């Protein structure tokens, strides 16, 4: 019988297969790939195990074992006395020349999908390194109580918590939230208006899906929360970035009438400014006149250190146009994945239906534990404790920067887990690189600015410094590192008076 020439593709594939695999597995992988790519065609005869072993410098036993394995998978047919052949019954691989050239990657994604990918998404910090923004101090969480309550819920409620749950959310949690929001935030609602979600981000995504048609105008604060920008941009909205001054969002009549206005009125993200009462009333009246929705994202108002925050805007709404959002990510812990929306009655049924097609509901067990944590007063005492802890950390960070760094101007804010700090104009990239080289994370302010109508965003240079998850000595060490950076002379480049701290 004439010697079969060795298929060169098979040899190349074998040589290129990950060398960490065993020799038999490498040969199996090369055979599968050669057949599924069409390099070996249906019915083609393979070299004998002796010849292939010789060419690949393998033992004949290894080649026999690989042939037997790939035969068992259906890629090969072996006939005693005749040889080894590529199976005739496999679907034919497309011929490279005939198949239409398809651009890899985005070409197979829908237009909506491409918009979502283009936003770049949003990722939260995964560890409490200085100065990653936005995380509570998980080391200060009352884990022991939480464990006891989890065990108690499982003992008492048992398998009732293991099944699918109410897509609107666990009723005792919605009741606890309604009471808490009325008393502490002046939100006017009943448990029937509350929808539990896994995050504020999920609530934003659902609202964008329900309320926004492509090219609808959506007003966002400038600078503003990228999570909201991404949610509305991915729904095809026309984003209008409205400037924020020391009274919060300052609407300009030149902007198109919005279908929806997204706000962080208690504590503007990222500057911490509170939306003044006249502006709140003006925006509510504006929304009434133009039938616009308002989303009030009250993401961290519980963590307020100087005086009391203004009550929620939702409590001033007479026309059921405000959707109030809150989250447990900041006041309990982010991996809990529980947040809530207080909906105008007309939106309850549509949003619950949307929730059913968007992963159904949140974990019943975690909702039950959170409800018990609230009912038994542990939530209120954990809030009091966190407020004191983060208050002292904010003051410590401000004092440290004030004493040691003259090129960074913090913007004092009355609450929250982070603060904005301004850098000399045009220096954000340079200073961030220096800080990164010193092992300090400094989330940048410029990505929080959006250009309007396709024009590039005018931004302020600065950082958003998270302090809540850091102990005083961690804050001191990190500020010392920043203070020792070799920065250029700055007298000409500090921000203008308008971006100096408010107090
Ligand atoms: C303004 C704002 N809203 C919402 C959230 C996130 O909440 P969640 O984890 O529930 O999506 C954040 C997180 O940093 C935020 O800054």
From TrEMBL:
The keyword Transferase applies. Residues 21-89 form the HTH gntR-type domain. Keywords: Aminotransferase, DNA-binding, Pyridoxal phosphate, Transcription, Transcription regulation, Transferase. PROSITE patterns: HTH_GNTR. Transmembrane segments: none annotated. It comes from the Bacteria. The keyword Phosphoprotein does not apply. One of its GO terms (molecular function) is transaminase activity. Gene3D superfamilies: Type I PLP-dependent aspartate aminotransferase-like (Major domain), Winged helix-like DNA-binding domain superfamily/Winged helix DNA-binding domain. In the C-terminal section; belongs to the class-I pyridoxal-phosphate-dependent aminotransferase family. This is PLP-dependent aminotransferase family protein. It comes from Rahnella victoriana.
């Amino acid at each position: 019988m004439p010697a079969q020439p060795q298929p060169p593709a098979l040899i190349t594939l074998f040589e290129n297969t990950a060398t960490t695999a065993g020799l038999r597995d490498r040969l199996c992988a090369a055979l599968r790939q050669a057949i599924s790519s069409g390099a070996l065609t249906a019915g083609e005869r393979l070299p004998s195990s002796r010849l292939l072993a010789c060419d690949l410098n393998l033992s004949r036993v290894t080649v026999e074992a690989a042939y037997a394995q790939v035969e068992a998978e259906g890629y090969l047919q072996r006939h005693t006395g005749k040889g080894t052949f590529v199976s005739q019954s496999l679907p034919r691989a497309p011929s490279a020349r005939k198949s239409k050239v398809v651009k890899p990657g985005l070409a197979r994604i829908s237009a909506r999908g491409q918009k979502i990918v283009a936003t770049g998404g949003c990722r939260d910090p995964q560890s409490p390194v200085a100065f990653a923004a936005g995380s509570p101090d998980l080391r200060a969480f009352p884990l022991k109580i939480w464990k006891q309550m989890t065990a108690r819920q499982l003992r008492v409620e048992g398998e009732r918590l293991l099944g699918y749950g109410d897509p609107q959310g666990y009723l005792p949690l919605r009741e606890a939230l309604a009471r808490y929001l009325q008393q502490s935030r002046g939100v006017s609602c009943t448990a029937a208006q509350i929808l539990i979600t896994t995050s504020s981000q999920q609530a934003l995504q659902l609202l964008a899906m329900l309320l926004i048609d492509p090219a609808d105008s959506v007003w966002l604060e400038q600078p503003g929360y990228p999570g909201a920008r991404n949610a509305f941009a991915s729904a095809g909205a026309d984003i209008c970035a409205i400037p924020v001054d020391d009274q919060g969002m300052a609407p300009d009549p030149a902007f198109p009438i919005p279908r929806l206005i997204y706000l962080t009125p208690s504590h503007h993200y990222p500057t911490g400014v509170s939306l003044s009462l006249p502006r709140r009333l003006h925006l509510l009246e504006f929304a009434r006149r133009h039938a616009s929705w308002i989303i009030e994202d009250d993401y961290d108002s519980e963590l307020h250190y100087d005086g009391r925050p203004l009550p929620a805007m939702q409590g001033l709404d007479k026309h059921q146009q405000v959707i109030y959002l809150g989250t447990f990510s900041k006041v309990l812990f982010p991996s809990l994945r529980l947040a809530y929306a207080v909906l105008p009655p007309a939106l309850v049924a549509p949003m619950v239906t949307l929730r059913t097609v968007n992963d159904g509901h949140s974990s019943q067990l975690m909702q039950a534990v959170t409800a018990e944590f609230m009912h038994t007063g542990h939530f209120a005492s954990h809030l009091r404790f966190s407020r004191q802890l983060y208050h002292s950390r904010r003051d410590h960070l401000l004092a440290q920067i004030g004493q040691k760094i003259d090129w960074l101007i913090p913007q004092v804010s009355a609450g929250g887990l982070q603060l904005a700090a301004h850098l000399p104009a045009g220096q954000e990239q340079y200073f961030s690189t220096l800080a990164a080289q010193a092992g300090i994370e400094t989330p940048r302010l410029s990505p929080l600015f959006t250009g309007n109508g396709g024009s590039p965003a005018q931004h302020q240079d600065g950082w958003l410094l998270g302090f809540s998850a850091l102990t005083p000595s961690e804050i001191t060490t990190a500020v010392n590192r920043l203070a020792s950076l070799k920065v250029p002379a700055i007298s000409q480049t500090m921000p203008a008076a308008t971006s100096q701290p408010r107090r």
